[in-house]
Amino acid sequence: MPQETVRIMCPNLTCRKILAVPKSARGRTVRCRSCGTSIRVPPESGPKPAPAPSDSQS
Ligand SMILES: [Zn+2]
Hints:
It is built from no helices and four strands. By secondary structure, it is mainly β. It is elongated.
């Protein structure tokens, strides 16, 4: 199973390198391997799924 990665772009305008970091790095700070800028990995990307209604009838 391939490891899921998060792609983020380096905020350094002179670098703008696309970095692929493991999902485990979410919410943490990684360092651009090209320019050394610290980049914060967003906790979650994309639209959030609607919360399931809790209609647990038993
Ligand atoms: Zn960079």
